[in-house]
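Table S4 entry, Transcription termination/antitermination protein NusA.
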Amino acid sequence: MSKEMIEALDALETEKGVKKEIVIDALETALQTAYKRNYNQAQNVEVDFDAKKGDIKVYAVKEVTDEVFDSRLEVSLKDATAINKAYEIGDHIKFEVTPKNFGRIAAQTAKQVIMQRVREAERANVYDEYSQYENEIMQGTVERKDNKFVYVSLGKVEAVMPRSDQMPREEYKMHEHIKVYVSKVENATKGPQVFVSRTNPGMVKRLFEEEVPEIYDGTVEIVGVAREAGDRSKVAVRSNNENVDAVGTTVGPRGARVQAVVNELSGENMDIVQWEDDPSDYIANALNPAEVIAVQFNDEDNERSATVIVPDYQLSLAIGKKGQNARLAAKLTGFKIDIKPESEVEFVDDDELTAEDQAEEAAEVATDVDTTDANEDAATEAATDAAADPDDDAATTASDPTDTNE
C-alpha cells in the first residue's frame, strides 16, 4: 500500500461523496477479519492504516500478567518491563505482527471494501435524492413490463408500477414518456426501491397544481379528492380569497384547465365540487350534477351518516351508474350517504320538529283561528241586528208567512 491508495481515497470522496474516514474504518475492520482468517490468529488483532503514508500494520494486543497461559493473548510482566519499565499488570501492549506477504491480501481486501462502500454510497445518494420526490409527479420513460409491473426509468433509478397502480384502459409502450406519481420510496437491502402510480388520488391533485397557478400558490385549495381511476374523480376545492371563485378558477376558461388534466388521465371525468363548512351543503354539492332537496343527519347513529332527499326524476342521476356518483360523494365527504326519492319520504312528526319549526306552525294555526272567530262573530252580530229591526228585508221574510204563500 502506498500514497496512491490515499490519492484513490481522496478521488473517491470527491467523485462519489464517500468520506475517506468511513472507508478507512471499514478497511481496518475488513483487514482484521482477513488476517484472522488467513493466519489463524486470535481475536486480539488490530490493524492500523496510516492515512498519510498509506501503510498498513497489524498488531497483536496482549495483556500484561504475572503468569502467561496463552502467549497469543498474554505477556509476562518481566517481558513487558523489559520493553518499558512503566508497564504494570493489566496493561495492554501492541506487538507488530504484519506478515511479509500481507500486502497482497490487503490489496484484495481494500478493493472489495472500496467497491462495497461505493455501492452503499450510491444507494444512499439515490435514496436521499428520490425520497425528496415522494408524493410528487415525475416524468419517466417506460423501460419494460411483465405480468406484475411496469418498469419506469426516472434517471438514476428504475421505478416499478404495480398492476394496482396502472390505469385500467392504458397500454404502456416501450420508450414511451409518461407522468407518474411517486407513491413510496424504500431503502431496501438491495438498494433504494421507488414505487410509482397512475391511479393514486394524489396524482390528480398534483396535476391540478401544474395546470392551475392559483392552486399552486395556495389561493385555491384542494380539500379532498375521491377517485375511481380511469373513470371518474370528484375534487373538492375552496378559495382562500373571497374575490376568487374556486370552482371557476379550477375549471378554467372554457374548461381548458380541467380538460388538460382529463387528457393526461386518458379521458377520466372530473367533477369540481365547491367545499362548504356546512356538511349538508357540502354533501349536496358533492352529489352534483343531481339536484338535492334536503339532507337529514342521523344523530342517533354513531357513524357519520346522512339521508339525502332528491326529486323522483333525479334519483338515478344522484346514485349514478352502478352507484358511482353516490359512492364518490360519500368518499369525498366522509359521510355514509343514503339517497331517497321525494315520494318515499314521510311527513315529519311534531315531536321531531325543531323549536323554530314548531313556533312557525303554531303561528299559522293561530292566524287561522283568529280569522275563523272573526267571521263567526260577524255573522252572529248581523243576525242579532236583523231580529231587532222589523223593517229589514230579511226579518220581514222570516216573520211574514203570507210572503211564502205568494
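The two ends are 151 Å apart (CA to CA).
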